Amino acid sequence: MQPEFIIIHQQVVPYVAHIQLNRPKELNALNLQLMGELRDALKLLDADDQVRVIVISGNEKAFAAGADIKQMAEKSAMDMYNTDQFSTWDTIKKTKKPIIAAVSGFALGGGCELMMLCDMVVASETARFGQPEIKLGVMPGAGGTQRLTRAVGKALAMEMVLTGRFITAQEAFQAGLINRIVPVELFLQEAIKLAQEIATMAPLAVKMAKEAVLKAFDTTLDEGLHFERKNFYLLFASEDQKEGMQAFMEKRTPSFKGK
Ligand code: DAK
Q1: 203 in ligand 1 pocket by Cβ < 6 Å?
Q2: 203-249 has which fold?
């Protein structure tokens, strides 16, 4: 079945897929159906050999203005428990290939949390980031207190979470939340360009390096170094390691196969 609230563009450039969140009238508010479609698309793309990097965007006005407040408003704690939305978010988190968020306009609440699940962020100069859940009588529930704090530090995270203040692209860049700021008309193009650059690298090395960097967030330094070493050794079992080093010595561009 065709998804209703996302658009999947396969091979926007070689080995790069682009998923566009597409509920523009609702500023891409993340309802359950959209999140389910996104989860399913990421699972498919993660298993597709023709895809090495995934870009997720909204549109110029909004990446996503948060979880769908209208869908949540009447829910009880048991409704929330029974729908188990976290399993969807957990599946997204397990995506092995790098995901680049292309953000313009609002990235709020669950939208900011979804962005932080991505591995890199290219933002337009109009991007605004925030965790405004506090104004709705709740608090972030999908990583906004944890990933945001790790990314920008306690002072700014506490302020954003407790006041709901939106920060600008410039503030987000200075705080280390995003990778780069580009003119609004270029935000998607630049994200795809970054994806394309990564897609030329050895796919297994990219996946294992992503895994190792993420490990740094939930382990001790010793365990993290051990994990890094294991992945480093493992890559010497790949054909791409032989190809990459051979190509260097022969002064040619390597041709990586993901094997
Ligand atoms: N939900 C539903 N509809 C939304 C929405 C949202 N989050 N954000 C905007 N819309 C809708 C508006 O209601 C409006 O629809 P109509 O009234 O025209 O039908 C339309 O989008 C355009 O919005 P505005 O007219 O408000 O546009 P403005 O430019 O004036 O304002 C705004 C833009 C982004 C400042 C404003 O719309 C706004 O404050 N939106 C709400 C932002 C917000 O509070 N976001 C946090 C939501 S709570 C979980 C995972 C995650 C979460 C929860 C659980 N689990 C895994 C269990 C996350 C929670 C949240 O994100």
Answers
A1: no
A2: Lyase 2-enoyl-coa Hydratase; Chain  A, domain 2 (1.10.12)
Distance of CA 254 to the CA centre of its chain: 28
Q: Is the pTM of this model over 0.70?
A: yes
DSSP string covering 26-83, please?
GTT-B-HHHHHHHHHHHHHHHT-TT-SEEEEE--SSEEE--B-HHHHTT--HHHHHHH
Residues 6+ apart with CB under 8 A from 48: 17
* Cβ count within 10 A of residue 196: 17
* 256 CB near ligand 1 (under 6 Å): no
Q: What is the pLDDT of residue 123?
A: 98
| Catalytic annotation present for 143 | no
Report the nearest-CA residue for atom 1 of ligand 1. Answer: 68
Write out pLDDT tens, residues 7-23.
Answer: 999 999 999 999 999 99
Give tens-digit pLDDT for 52-84.
999 999 999 999 999 999 999 999 999 988 988
Task: Answer for the pair 28, 64: CB distance below 8 angstroms, yes or no.
Answer: yes
Q: Which of 62, 65, 67, 195 is catalytic?
A: 67
Where exactly are the structural domains of the chain? Answer: 6-199, 203-249
Catalytic residue status for 67? yes
Instruction: Find out whether the beta carbon of 27 lies less than 6 Å from any atom of ligand 1.
Output: yes
Query: Which fold would CATH assign to domain 6-199?
Result: 2-enoyl-CoA Hydratase; Chain A, domain 1 (3.90.226)
- Same CATH fold assignment for domains 6-199 and 203-249: no
The secondary structure of residue 198, as a DSSP letter, is H
The Å distance, Cα 75 to ligand 1 centre, comes to 16
Residue 1 has pLDDT above 90, yes or no: no
Residue 32: CB within 6 Å of ligand 1? Answer: no
